[in-house]
Recover the amino acids of this structure.
């Protein structure tokens, strides 16, 4: 072998040796500086870090009544390495912890993978069972204190939401959480999760080689105390919410009541609802699956997510747009001979006096009158064509809060739907006019809105042109105010002076003669508007929109009952009873209460 070959070989060996040492050094540095697994494993031989869960903040109604409380319970944990090698009384542990033998064996198998790490076996162990567990001396098993939700009034399932343990999917989206954490999954619990959850603490315990606790590490120097979650004062009136859920029982739909002067939601009912306590405790998973596959969808919050045609309640918006656009005056008369007819197109209407002005048209809910108004808006000669007029109409409608989220503190609030010209261009290949879309005049066709948006419309009319964003929380512990957006007035594109004839028409419809006379309350100047929405899958939907009193209103309400028939048949009596109860603190029409509670509605879509 030549000297040059020997030199190259020596250099190659040197490079290889240096590379190997470099890899070892890098690995050692990584373990020392970044990888804490080995330190944790070594520490686990003598120390146990026990998470201290904070109690979630409680939720009160606007009058100080508890809506949500927290009660004491425990998680059962296991460290596989510390289990007594001689075994333990499996049957006794399963009985005390309320866990099946199959689940226990499954969790022990999972714990065997990381024998020194704590593993959750089961949750929701009540205090009395925890005391029985302590008497059993199950080495390797221990309990961790936490709280679980309870609902004293058993109301507001969709409104308040529920709390559940995070799953793998949730952890991927929210890496700030850990296995074993519980978070709000819907409603107020979800929307105000950061305020309600509090901050976890930790307690470090010294343990011996047999897993027995020797005491607190360093006298608790490194322990941290959990910080409880903040309490919330909601805008809800618990008694009104309870009555609303009673009146809507057996029906499908929603009811929303708002205080017009603040935007505070007084009541939000989605029917069917559920007892929120059913989604707490050991049987939570089974109950959740039953609700999930229930055809009536009790977990679906119809109050903020459903898209319903507004029906005749939408005539109020048409009248206001017509007044603002100058194509309508309150004194304008239109004829109605049981409907509106143009060529072969006819839209039917019920019998009433004719001709009639705007106020009487609102009171009697005349279809023909608002067909004239709607066509005058779209065919206004100041616009080049009907599509331009339609674009202007759509902008007005959206200013009333339709076709978009209102910005409430409900994270899952829906948009509803207001069609644009592109929608009709697709439907009719670009060839359409005001007659083609005439059913929009009475709140039909592709229009879709949430009951929250309809209640907000009642607020807008009650306030003569503006609204505050509806919200469900009045105050957060430790905060002087809410988000500033809840204190700002949002105005429509219609001048306030145009609202008076609409308000007068709604008042007449209740107090003089019209479709809403059943809603009359002596001394309260109730204003209302019925709506009957066509339904291709069964009986028409019933809806009613109202506020009271006429001046300085205290409550605005919308009720929507699927398959309920005429607006005055189902939705009106429910809304009227709720208004009466809120304004007078009593119900003086027991016959109407019995009528509503005994109402039977057939739901072919859900019941087949």
């Amino acid at each position: 072998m030549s000297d040059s070959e020997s030199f190259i070989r020596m250099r190659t060996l040197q490079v290889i040796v240096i590379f190997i040492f470099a890899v070892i050094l890098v690995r050692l540095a990584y373990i020392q500086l970044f990888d804490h697994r080995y330190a944790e494993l070594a520490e686990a031989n003598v120390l146990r870090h026990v998470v201290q869960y904070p109690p979630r903040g409680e939720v009160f109604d606007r009058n100080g009544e508890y809506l949500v409380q927290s009660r004491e319970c425990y998680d059962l944990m296991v460290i596989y390495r510390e289990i007594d090698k001689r075994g333990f009384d499996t049957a006794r542990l399963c009985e005390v912890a309320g866990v099946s033998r199959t689940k226990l064996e499954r969790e022990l198998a999972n714990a065997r993978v990381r024998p020194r790490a704590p593993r959750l076996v089961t949750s929701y162990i009540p205090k009395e069972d925890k005391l029985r567990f302590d008497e059993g001396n199950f080495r390797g098993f221990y309990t961790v204190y936490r709280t679980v939700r309870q609902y004293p009034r058993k109301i507001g399932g969709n409104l308040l939401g529920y709390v559940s343990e995070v799953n793998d999917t949730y952890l991927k989206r929210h890496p700030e959480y850990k296995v074993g954490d519980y978070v709000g999954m819907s409603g107020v619990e979800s929307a105000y999760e950061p305020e309600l959850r509090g901050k976890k603490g930790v307690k470090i315990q010294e343990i011996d080689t047999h897993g027995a606790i020797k005491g607190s590490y360093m006298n608790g120097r490194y322990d941290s105390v959990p910080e409880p979650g903040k309490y919330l004062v909601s805008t809800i009136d618990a008694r009104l919410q309870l009555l609303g859920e009673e009146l809507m029982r057996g029906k499908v739909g929603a009811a929303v009541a708002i205080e017009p002067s603040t935007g505070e939601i007084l009541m939000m009912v989605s029917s069917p609802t559920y007892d929120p306590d059913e989604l707490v405790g050991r049987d939570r998973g089974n109950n959740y699956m039953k609700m999930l596959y229930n055809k009536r969808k009790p977990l679906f919050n119809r109050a903020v997510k459903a898209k319903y045609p507004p029906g005749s309640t939408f005539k109020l918006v048409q009248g206001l747009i017509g007044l603002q656009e100058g194509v309508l005056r309150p004194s304008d008369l239109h004829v109605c001979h049981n409907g509106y007819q143009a060529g072969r197109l006819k839209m039917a209407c019920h019998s009433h006096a004719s001709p009639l002005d705007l106020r009487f048209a609102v009171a009697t809910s005349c279809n023909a009158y608002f067909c004239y108004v709607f066509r005058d808006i779209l065919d206004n000669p100041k616009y080049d064509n009907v599509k331009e007029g339609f674009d202007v109409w759509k902008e007005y409608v959206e200013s009333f809060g339709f076709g978009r989220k209102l910005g409430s503190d409900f994270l899952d609030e829906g948009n509803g739907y207001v069609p644009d010209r592109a929608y009709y261009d697709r439907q009719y290949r670009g060839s359409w006019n005001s007659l083609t879309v005439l059913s929009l005049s009475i709140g039909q066709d592709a229009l879709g809105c949430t009951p929250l948006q309809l209640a907000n419309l009642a607020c807008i009319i009650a306030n003569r042109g503006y609204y505050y964003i509806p919200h469900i929380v009045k105050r957060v512990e430790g905060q002087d105010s809410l988000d500033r957006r809840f204190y700002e007035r949002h105005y429509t594109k219609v001048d306030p002076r145009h609202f008076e004839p609409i308000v007068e028409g709604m008042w007449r419809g209740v107090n003089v003669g019209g479709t809403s006379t059943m809603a009359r309350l002596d001394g309260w100047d109730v204003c209302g508007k019925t709506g009957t929405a066509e339904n291709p899958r069964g009986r028409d939907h019933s809806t009613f929109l109202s506020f009271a009193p006429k001046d300085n209103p205290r409550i605005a309400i919308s009720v929507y009952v699927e398959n309920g028939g005429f607006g005055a048949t189902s939705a009106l009596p429910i809304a009227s009873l709720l208004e009466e109860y809120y304004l007078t603190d009593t119900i003086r029409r027991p016959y109407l209460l019995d009528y509503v509670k005994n109402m039977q509605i057939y739901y072919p879509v859900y019941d087949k």
The radius of gyration is 32 Å. The chain is about 35% helix and 20% strand. The mean pLDDT is 91.
